[in-house]
Write a structure and sequence with these properties.
about 70% helix; about 120 residues; 2 strands; 3 helices; mainly alpha; about 5% strand
Length: about 120
């Protein structure tokens, strides 16, 4: 019998018989053995750092850009909420009275049908 025939399937890859044990939560979270993933992240960070340095980008530029982005989103968000509130009020002046009258009419029809025997 082929040992891979009955191998369990785990997240996109077949796990061999010697690796069939359950992965712990940390290994599943990081996507592999933590030490290997850490080394991969260190190497990738070095490569990206060299490329960004060659382009003249510093970590402070990125941090300042993110801070400016957050500030713009904050300001725009409140402007958007004010804009939406105004349109809500404009529509509510029409919608809520119509809804209220419709509910009153429906309630009066129910009472009228209950009174009639």
């Amino acid at each position: 019998m082929d040992p891979w025939e009955a191998a369990p399937y785990n997240g996109g890859q077949f796990v061999g018989p010697e690796q069939g044990r359950e992965m712990d939560a940390l290994t599943r979270f990081v996507g592999g053995p933590p030490a290997r993933v850490f080394i991969q992240l260190v190497v990738l960070s070095l490569v990206v750092g060299v490329v960004l340095s060659a382009l003249g980008v510093s970590p402070f530029d990125i941090a300042n850009g993110l801070a400016r982005l957050a500030e713009r989103l904050w300001n725009t968000g409140f402007d958007t909420l004010i804009w939406a509130w105004r349109y809500f009020l404009l529509g509510a002046v029409i919608v809520f009275p119509i809804w209220f009258v419709a509910r009153l009419l429906k309630a009066s029809r129910r009472q009228g049908s209950q009174v009639q025997l």
